[in-house]
Amino acid sequence: MACTAYRKPPLWEDIAEVLPTAGAGRKQMCQGNHVSWRRLGAQEIWQHMTEYEYLVENSPAALFLVDLTGTILEANNAGARLLGRSRAELVGLAGRQWLKTSDPRARALAGGINDAGSSDIEVALHHADGFDFSARLDARVFEHPDHGRVASVVCRLNATLPVASGDDTGDIAKIALSHIDEAAVLVGADGRIRALNTAYTRITGYNEAEAVGQSLELDGGSHESDLLTQVIDGLAPGKRWTGEVHNRRRDGQRYPAFVKITALAPGEETASAQFVVVFRDLSADKAYEARIEYLAHYDTLTGLANRTMIEKRAEMSRMAVERDGRHLALLFLDLDGFKAVNDSLGHATGDKLLCHVADRLRSAVGERDLVARQGGDEFVILLDSIAEPEDAAYVANRILNTLKVPLTLNDQTVFTTASIGISCYPDDSQDLTTLLRNADMAMYRAKRLGHGRYVFYRPEMDANAHWMLQLRNNLHRALELDELHVYYQPFVDVNSGEVTGIEALLRWQNDELGMVSPADFIPIAEQTGLILDIGHWVLRQACQELQRLHERGYDHLRVAVNLSARQFRQTDLVDQIAAVLEETGLDSRHLELEITETVLMEQAGATLDTLHALQALGVAVALDDFGTGYSSLSYLRRFPITYLKVDKSFVDGIPAEKGDLTITRTIVAMARSLGIRVTAEGVETLAQRRWLKHWHCEEAQGYLYSMPLAADDLEWLLANHELLPVGDETGRLRHDSFPVLEE
Ligand code: C2E
Ligand code: MG
Ligand code: MG
User: Fold this and answer.
1) Whose CA is nearest to atom 19 of ligand 1?
2) The ligand 1 atom nearest the CA atom of 525
């Protein structure tokens, strides 16, 4: 029906003509024009009809002209307001979309109007905002020249009866329902939707017009797609079924929902609706649960598993390896010197670094292995099923090599290393917590032995904690008991084989503890502050010894003394050094101070001042263990450094490890281009020496040439410098064992 053709005044007359309330006025104004106006032009109609139009347009009563199916042909302003739509929207609106009633007289209007005639009927009208409200309606059927039988309808809000009692829903209840988060649906015995609230539309995407009359589909899984039918068939009146289902939205997206289906009790039910289905979209809850689950098992920064997850996985893997007689390995990994990155470059950079490391760890292990972040800069790697514990060593090596590849951090190329402790199931412990503790202990051992290495757990390490306590208790008296000694390890010119200098390395010989490695006691001395006295003492010893050697003719030698971070931070460091030089008579040109890059990073400003003061004093500075911690080539440019010592962990890889070769070559080339002299640490083989010589690394230090020696043994070595003796475990020279150097 071309309803839009009747947008203008003519139909007003039709309405007014038969309106029970307005009809009289119209007669008066339009007498004689009843037929003729149809032939007038629009302008003339407006002129002719103006007064009449005003009357209808401004009528406080809502007026509608409807056809016999209830479809609106025209409405006045009050009608539009009443239903919450514009007049244009109202034209063509079907009866079921605006008029709801169980009154048989008014049903005639919605379902096909007959000659029920005019009467005051109570109805529910549907507002555009989604709620129904109670109204009173009066209708007259009349013959329209173009449309045949139509009805003029006047509606008034029902002020006395806010809830349409006896109907499916009342307006107050409906408004309330429209504000709840759960979808509420009235369903008939046939499973078809009778009424719904706004949450239903929000959740499913189906509006009322689309959904009412359709079957409510609840999908309990692939086998229960007609779940609703099953449930309502077996649900006695007054009973309720609850359960979780998966539904599909209008756009095809599936979502989980929690559903309550209630069979209305006798008396509650209506002619059309016997069930109330209420359901809640669980998508957000599920996402929240998944997030909680994620947080419980994963590390948010790196996306790696966390400790809880690794424990769960280890527990699962344990059963599998028990069954097929294999092993599990736990690798406990701690980054070397990470604290310095955080302290000096800030937490954001620290976080970036952790993410890089996480990526590298993931790439270095197999698909079945699990990498977890334990917290801070500690990572745990679970090797799922290995044939032999030794297999863990391959993975550890691969990890160390992966980490060694320089990475770019804040536009700087930095080198990073880690220390790894390894413990295996079932060999080292049956219990996971103990395994983890064992791996942790082994990691500490690896740290003490020098950075960038792995160590397998050994039962002796259990005694370690007790032993460390003993060290702590005994160290403070070591100096006064004369238990500390300085050993010296030569630096050798790679080309000539000449000794060019010596490094002072501290030794502690205790009656109870035996010979204690500086790697074990220096950290304690550093923590307790004892390092300040001890370090000063080493400096004096070393300067004295070198001065003595100079006096004995070895005046080309220099001495390198290791300075700890705490020593370097002393504000009077330069004065102390000047005083020692003065006291021992050693020329400042022959003293070299070894610091690590961690020290440089700690407080770049103050560090630079100290370095310049040392430079002014004529003392050389060496960067020790270069390539570990967070060594950065750009630091070489920024700081006045004379020597750079390539860490043993790189030298170890010469000549087999391609990565180590590249890094060492790069470091040597870069340092040389900046006029910095390079010393290779821990040279043990002729092949290493040959390679270093080829790549212009001028100086080497290591067991190939000599272990650290007591002062008198050193002098013996110097006197017999053609011979390259090998020391015993304590560094004491064994005069009877000289390796024969053959290329
Ligand atoms: P460092 O300064 O890097 O010293 C080199 C370490 O490597 C020494 O261990 C040396 O004995 C060892 N080494 C040298 N050549 C080889 C080799 O060919 N193979 C192997 N496997 N090792 C080799 P040491 O004497 O146990 O000292 C360990 C660390 O303790 C030193 O590392 C240094 O950081 C620290 N340290 C030693 N003495 C002092 C000191 O007087 N003051 C401070 N602050 N630290 C010291
Ligand atoms: Mg050193
Ligand atoms: Mg070193």
Assistant:
1) 682
2) 44
Do 276 and 349 belong to one domain? no
- Domain total of the chain: 4
Of the three residues 286, 312, 343, the one that is the final residue of a domain is 286
Which atom, in ligand 1's list, is nearest to the CA of 561?
41
CATH classification at residue 107: 3.30.450.20
Statement to judge: residues 306 and 212 lie in one domain: no
Mean of the pLDDT values across residues 704-725? 82
Taking CA atoms only, the protein residue closest to ligand 1 atom 10 is 708
Select from 562, 570, 648 the residue to mutate for testing ligand 1; criterion: most ligand atoms less than 8 Å from CB. 562
Would you say residue 170 lies in a domain? no
Strands of the sheet containing 412-415, edge to edge, are: 407-409, 412-415, 631-632
Looking at ligand 1, which residue's alpha carbon is closest to its atom 34?
A: 562
Q: How many CB atoms lie within 10 A of CB 65?
A: 27
The full length of the chain comes to 743
Which residues, other chains included, contact 696 with Cβ-Cβ below 8 Å and sequence gap of 6+?
A: 668, 669, 672
Among 419, 491, 492, 505, which is best to mutate for testing ligand 1, by the most ligand atoms less than 8 A from CB?
A: 505
The 10s digit of each residue's pLDDT in 662-689 is 989 999 999 999 999 999 999 999 999 9
To which residue do tokens 């010596």 refer? Answer: 502
In a domain, 52, yes or no: yes
Q: What is the pLDDT of residues 231-257, one digit of tens each?
A: 888 888 888 899 888 888 989 899 999
Which residues have a Cβ under 8 Å from the Cβ of 482 and sit 6 or more positions away? none
628 C-beta closer than 6 A to ligand 1: no
Tell me the per-residue pLDDT of 84-109, one tens digit each, with 9 for 90 and over.
888 888 999 988 888 876 555 555 55
Alpha carbon distance 676, 635 (integer Å): 12
State the chain's mean pLDDT as an integer. Answer: 82
506 lines ligand 1 (CB under 6 A): yes
* Predicted structure pTM score: 0.59
Answer whether residue 105 is part of any domain: yes
For residue 531, the ligand 1 atom closest to its alpha carbon is 44
Question: Does residue 724 lie within any of the structural domains?
Answer: no
Range of the domain at 250: 182-286
The ligand 1 atom nearest the CA atom of 487: 25
- pLDDT-based confidence at 167, cuts 50/70/90? very low
DSSP per-residue string spanning 65-82: EEETTS-EEEE-HHHHHH
**What are the residues whose beta carbon lies below 5 Å from ligand 3 (ion)?**
624-625, 681
Residues 329 and 235 in one domain: no
3-state secondary structure of 586: coil
